[in-house]
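In this section we walk through a basic example: taking a raw amino acid sequence and producing a predicted 3D structure, encoded as discrete structure tokens. The instruction is simple. Fold the sequence below.
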Amino acid sequence: MSSVFFQAVAATIIASSIPLILAAIGELVAERSGMLNLGVEGMMLMGAVCGFIGAYFSGSTLIGALCGVAAGMAMAALYGLLTIGFAVNQVAAGLALTIFGQGLSGLVGAHFVGLKRDGAPHLHLPWLSDLPYIGHMLFGEDGFAYVAVGLVAGVAWFLRYSRAGLDLRAVGDNPASAHALGMPVGGIRLKAVLFGGACAGLSGAYLTLAYTPFWSPGLSAGRGWIALALVVFASWKPWRVVLGALLFGGATILQLQAQALGIRLPSQMLSALPYVVTILALILLNLRRNRGSLTPAALGLPFVADT
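The resulting token sequence is shown next.
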């Protein structure tokens, strides 16, 4: 395998993985606080359309990314209001958020369908970016890739070593005990949900600013649901999110390579391949029942403080 071909395949796998990493790491933090937000798909779509609009008018990828983050956080704030403020069922609120995001993103972006802009610039360091096999992977990605890695590392440190991370895990496992110890359960959960929304919005912005630099309705194509599955696949451990996302990205590339090689299989079967791989991985994980799983004990359970 030539160096050029290897780097091209690796770059495509990484590009397919970045939106999943961004969305999944945010959802992981939200779930570790006990909040099951099934609205990731809707937040991604709003981040995608608002990110594209912001970048289209400003000419800045950074401003577009910030617009995507803001849109994701606004959607997450709505979810937080319903589930934390009014103790609405988390599953129902998350599904409603996805449906709402799909419709609202289509309405907001109706006049921007088909418009294009330049994709996010890639890093290029003399000599380093030209190294065979690893040069482009390590020193030739766009800014979203490095932000994704930084977020995973930061979340891993935060959950394991910081006092705030310990409080968040305590709230996710036993909110009643955490409240009895004086922890602001609602505030901690709201911050975790907003962080998840920011990451989902950034993930959506990546789709329209770097991955496919244009907007079309339904652009996320189910990636929000895959991100939710990746959190379970990762057993709520940050670095496993990266491995799961790369697995899905690899399955996506396998689908494209099979079509390019002319393998006589229905196109619908090849398109479903990445999702089938994810389902099989989840089944195998469930059969093994990894003892190191960090499933939050209070995941999806509402908490109302006694007055």
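Looking at the output, two observations stand out. The chain has twelve helices and no strands. The chain has a mean pLDDT of 88. In the next section we compare this with other chains.
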